[in-house]
Amino acid sequence: MSDLAQIHILPEHIANQIAAGEVVQRPESVVKELVENAIDAGATAISIGVKDAGRQLIHIIDNGSGMSRADLQVCLQRHSTSKITTSSDLFDIRTLGFRGEALASIAAIADVEIRSRRINEDTGWVLTARPGMAPETKPIGMDTGTQIFVRNLFYNVPARRKFLKSDLTEFRYISESVQKLALSKPSVRITLTNDGVVVLDAKPTDLQTRISDVLAINAQQHLLAVSGTEAGVTVSGFIGMPSISRQSRSGQFFFLNGRSIVSRQLAHAIASAYEHLLDAGHHPVFVINIEVNPQHVDVNVHPQKHEVKFENERAVYLLVQKAATDALMSSSVVPAFVGNLSLASQPLQSIHLQHSPDGSQMLVNRFTGEILPTTSSGIPPVQSWSKQTTTQFPASVRQGYAQLFAQPDTTTTVQNTNVMVVGSQFIVVATHEGISVINQQPAHERVLYERVLARSASEPSAQSLLFAVRITLAPSRSLLLKEFLDEFQDIGFRLEIGADGTIDIHAVPSEVFAGNEERTLDSMLQTLEVAGRLPKEQRKERVAVAFAAQQSVKKSDKISQEEAVQLVHDLFQCSVAHLSPRGQATYINISNSELLTRLTQ
Ligand code: ADP
Ligand code: MG
Q: Are 541 and 453 in contact (CB under 8 A)?
């Protein structure tokens, strides 16, 4: 028989070590908790220094409200907090901390020294504590605020110490955490030094500048402001242009009432706004603040408070998605196009006029085709820039065309005589207003793309083949085809995949020429191969893009006059006529007055 069990209460310092495991997993956790405390104390400047990636020393200095001697004497005890008093306060958390566990947990596994001077007090106090020993306080002369030194982390918990990774990795965790905190509070100066070397010195500023300081992003070129409000929820912040998307989620930051949160759903909401502006495996960059009445948020879910729950997640999802979509739309990086990086960041292109007497240039907005008047320096006057940035697409673009053709856009008819095929690449259309130069291949891609997307699965406009065409695809391609089979059917293919990897093509979309079935299918699959896994909603578009790219007339294809007239007509029926589905401009406009200016200069 075994001895009777002897239950005893663990000495407090041992119990604290166990709890500490949840709060303090690595040096980064200490940094995060202490910086959060400084933020809660209203600091406007916080300096963080570490030695040996925090193993030897973590040193945080802030200019916040400070603590009195009485505060210092209790702050290391578990559940000692100044931030909540009653349990109902738990439903209205406005600070980052509230559990009163961080300092106790840290003091259980390291030597801690806290120097603090409260506002309006003449002297500061220093508290020194070692695990298992009674802390002491002494007066000390110092500025208002708090300085905390955490030394010899985990020296009494070898198991923890053993699990730490290399200094490089541990420091990376620290700097990522500081990065996040810096993004959450642009108005606070934050510095980080590693073994005496300044790694980050972020001056107080606005969010946009903070993002460029911390993430090394060119804010002017690559960030789009996002905002939206709905039913008490406010979304603000910035999203990155498609060109700066990353192959990891390392550039994604959500803050809910100033607290960093991780949310797969909300990240999806933003990614979905980009549609296929992003290459497969790329993730958008964003820094998004969500403000909700704290009473509608439950942060008390996870000890490290990464996860929060908020009421009405769906509404927040839609709000975030809409805000991101609006931002992309108003920047002309319209969703439903494959983004062209240089195009996205530099819509204005300068073009040399061959026959201009002084060889002068003009600036063309490659999104809209609009031509901007240039000054002699080649820089457009301020007015036209500002006009440019406020233009809304695509509605106004279509309106512009309605005017150009002096007819409502849906009933545009193009006069045969006004259309001219130039070489085997361009079509020039003369109107009362001037001329439009259309690039035939991207224009045709746009037309085909919208046409197949408009097709519904029930009437796919397929042309049945009298005899099925049997082809064999490489195993990876036939797997891909299986995955996209529904989408292929939607746009007019009827395919049967045999067990042995053969494919019988029974019908193809009406645009496919006889004899071209295999090549069309194969080259579409080739395009899709790079797309990787896609959410269901994006697949049909991807297939449509691949189809349009494959089927369009090519640069060197000579098209007939009738085909050109048809193409021009079809193009201006499109909902987004100015860009191909792969992001190329489909046309530019040159107005009569522009021609006149150029010719009389
Ligand atoms: P919590 O932040 O959850 O309240 P902590 O253990 O992190 O718990 O801190 C305990 C208390 O110590 C805080 O509530 C706060 O009153 C005080 N405190 C900690 N750090 C600071 C600081 N940098 N400046 C002022 N007060 C602080
Ligand atoms: Mg805290």
A: yes
Question: pLDDT tens across 500-517, in order?
Answer: 778 999 888 888 877 788
- Residue pointed to by tokens 């949840």: 22
pLDDT score for 118: 95
Closest Cα to atom 13 of ligand 1: 81
Read off the pLDDT of each residue in 467-496 and give the average, rounded to a whole number.
85
Q: How far apart are CA 579 and CA 584, in angstroms?
A: 5
What letters, b where the CB count within 10 A reaches 16 and e where it falls short, cover 135-162?
Answer: bebeeeebebbbbbbbbebbbbbeebee
| CA–CA gap between residue 377 and residue 50 (Å, rounded) | 52
Strand 434-439 vs strand 462-472: parallel, antiparallel, or unpaired?
unpaired
On whether the CB atoms of residues 247 and 281 are closer than 8 A, the answer is yes
Phi-psi region of 515 (alpha: psi -120 to 50; beta: other; left: phi over 0): left
Question: Which ligand minimizes its atom distance to the CA of 102?
Answer: 1
How many residues belong to the chain?
601
Q: Which of 170, 169, 178 is nearest to 199 (CA)?
A: 178
- Flag whether the pTM goes above 0.90: no
- The rounded Å distance from CA 37 to ligand 1 centre is 5
Question: What residues contact residue 67 under an 8 Å CB cut-off, 6+ apart?
Answer: 75, 114, 116, 118, 125, 146
* Number of neighbours of residue 263 by Cβ within 10 angstroms: 21
DSSP annotation string for 391-451: --TTHHHHHHHHHHTTS-GGG----GGGEEEETTTEEEEE-SSEEEEEEHHHHHHHHHHHH
Residue that the structure tokens 């309106």 belong to: 399
Ligand positioned closest to the Cα atom of 71: 1
CB atoms within 10 A of CB 390: 9
Strands (DSSP E) contained in 162-250 are: 189-194, 197-202, 223-230, 233-240
Ligand 1 surroundings by CB, under 6 angstroms: 33, 37-38, 41, 62, 64-67, 75, 80-83, 97-104, 146
Atom of ligand 1 minimally distant from the CA of 66: 25
Amino acid at 413: T
Res 390: pLDDT: 26
Task: Answer yes or no: are the C-beta atoms of 76 and 112 closer than 8 Å.
Answer: yes
- Show the tokens assigned to 170: 């541990």
The 10s digit of each residue's pLDDT in 299-329 is: 555 545 555 666 677 788 889 998 998 888 7
Output the residue whose Cα is nearest ligand 1's atom 12: 75
Token pair for residue 231? 């039913």
Write the residue with the smallest CA distance to atom 18 of ligand 1. 37
Q: Which residue's CA is minimally distant from atom 27 of ligand 1?
A: 37
Q: What are phi and psi of 299, to 5 degrees?
A: -95, -5
